[in-house]
Design goal:
Largest sheet: 7 strands, antiparallel
Strand content: 15-25%
Radius of gyration: 32 Å
Structural class: alpha+beta
Number of helices: 18
Helix content: 10-25%
Shape: globular
Number of strands: 27
Length: 907
Amino acid sequence: MPDRPGRRSAHPALAGGVPEVPQAVARAASRRSRRARHDRRAAGADRGLPRRLRADLRRGHRPAGGGRGDPHAARRGTGEDHRRPGGALPGCRRPRRRPHRRARGALPRDRPGRHPGLPRRGPRRRRRPARSRGPGVRRHHRRARPEPVAGRRPPQQPRHRLQGGGVTATANAAETAIDPITFEVIRHRLLAITDEQGATLAAISGSTHVVEASDYNVGLYLPDGSVAAMGRTILSHASSMAAITRSVIRDCAGSPGINPGDMFIVNDPWKGTVHAQDVGLIAPIFFDGELLAWTGAMCHMVDVGGMTPGSFCIDATDSYQEGLQMPPTKLVDGGEVRTDVWNLILGHTRMAPTVNLDLRALVGANNTAVRAMTALAGKYGAATVRTVMANLIGLSERRLRNRLALLPDARLHSRAFLDNDGGLAQSSENATYEVDLVLTKRGDTLRFDFSGSSPQAKGYINCAYSGMMAGISAALLPTLAFDAPWNEGLFQPVEVECPEGLICNAARPAAVSGGALEAGWLVEMTALECLSKLAACSDELLREAQAGPAGGPDKFVLTGAGENGARQTYVIMDCLATGGAAYAHRDGAWTQGQHNIERQKISNVEAVEMDAPLLYLWRGLVADSGGAGRHRGGMSMGAVYTVHGGRDVTALNSAHGWEVPNSTGIFGGYPGAQNTRTVVHGSDVKARLAAGTVPAVEELSGERPVMRGRQGLYHLGDDDVLATVPQAGGGWGDPLDRPAASVQADLDFGAVTPDAAVRLYGVVLAADGRVDAAATAARRESLRAGRRAQPADLPLPEQPRGERIRIHPMGDGLEVVESGGRRWIACVCGCVMSPAGEPWRPRAARQTSRDVHAFSHATRLDDGLELRAYSCPSCGRLQATDVVRRGAPHPDDIRLLTGPEGQEEEE
């Protein structure tokens, strides 16, 4: 066939007939002319790679001299004891000349019996560098490249490698150099091992906490207990299991000793767990007789004893009333389960069959990790694996420090309130407690100071030091370390100050069984608020900031006779289906779930009805639950239950966020709705169901007792009905800035009621119920004028007249500008509110109210609290809404540590 454009002519090599392997040789022969050029370039064909990286990629890093000192040289076929043709001569550091057609550093693969008719391939031709193609042509090589997301791409040049030119071990691992490809392979294998651990745990456990709520986590740790890799389920266990591992090392190294095949169980809150229901099992991993690493698994167990089913001991006044609390105890000795300890644990729980499966699941998860890590060390060597683990920690630390260095130095303040301290405290002694955080960011460090928090409470709402660290972890990791490996390195830039004896660092024997969902939860909320406001001072990180997510669920535990007549405890997880917080660029997600649980689920209705003596009357999204704002908070899911089967049950409900909204708004957004709960005793629900109708709660007859936040134990009979709605996410930005079309969409979907649309979003509804855009614009301007008329404590500073240069944002309503050689805090409308480094709220128009419903979906507010709204006195934009103690000074949530002239200020 004659040649034509776009078609290759027959290659001369095919003119002599068909070779032994026709198709393969034909493909190879078509490239033979290029192979000749490759041969001529063989001596320098791989110079497109830097020398060190080239050596690492082709044969694995080895010391000079043919691999002397490399423990894996024989296995790789390199080094003194296993030389290949072309390797170093004995006693000579310089390798002799390599054979023809072999690229420098490439290992030979001599297979003389395979396809003898195929030509041997040389190294690939190096790609020519791109050249300029004249003006007006895009030069792709000049585009700015963002930092790659962790795990997406291995380092490609020596300057990209860890530890300054090569991945080298820290003091915790041997000084073994690791090539970047091996580093990435082992890093991802470590993450895969934690996934396998989690899958094993969930497959064995039958607990609702594990299977549905994902209230468990797993991890791998260096020999000193530092977190090297962790699962992505519940974040609060990240620091907790590291603390448990260090407790085991400290308490058990001498007696009973730490040996291969051992496993140690811990659920003592002063030894690392958040509360006694979180049970951790830690196992050492030995390789060739030396400690390679640790692995651990932890899950929430449905009951560990104590005075209340479910072990949320709402009436407890000390930890001795809260069930079994084990310091580090050897549960598995040399691979053999200690049945005496196992039976001791089961003897303290009301739910022995479920706890028995949980214990087996923890053992299985650890066995999975031990096998996988041993195989990994066998393949790459123990020193290599430890080096990668240590360097992962260094990578995360550097990434977080680099991010912090780009943020302005600031002191941030957040305060959250706990309504009361438990069942016995619901009396004249009842108090409102504070979790008070001052977060100071200087350079590349963060200092969390909870010293202003309330003294520890009488009731069960306290948390120990481990619970406080769990809350910090759950806030820090997804906010500022979203693209870094989650491990110990993220805690290196962190300092924590909190004297023992406070509500978030309670001293033994304080009651702490509720701490994970009480004081520890508000540690997370305050830390998240401060970190979000810090991130909002950067254009690059503004999208990572968020309003307050759901401020805490309403726990719902049932105890009663099961289908077989035996007494059972049921934990209903519907309270976890809470709305998410709003962001600068979007609304909060509906039923996002708890902020600190990465992979959360809830049970299907049918699964709950099959397991527990409950019948659902309704479950769905709740209108007016997410906080109002330019972007509103996500909606939560509510549920209505009735008891069925003629069985009476004992219920426990307990929640904070009852008399104060904990899902705070941000930068002018309103808080989300509070926890709500309604009980109807002796209702006519069965008669209505028999008549073929499913009634709404409002339609039922019967007695409606006044419910309290921490209700404690109460009785539910066959004709009783319980309705619950958990808190939802807070809003972002001024609700009057929400587009009228978006409010109409909310009305159409049912996310917002007409009352809330008018009251909170300032819209005007026409006779047909649709939003009147023109009338809405006029009404909103009138509402803004009313805000501007509110008083301020201090006058505005004299407005600078020179050119203004924007320095950085403070959310999306305020910004720091420079003018006349000074820095100012200004509204985006242009009004200068205060000098930089000084609080702006005293100069803002302020409205104070005890009517929390006027500013949110909340309906109740503690008698000692009030809500304040701060607006720009020039444009009327709402800049902040704060819940504070009555008569308290103005909040100072963001204090820049940069003076008006731009100099660093002392704290």
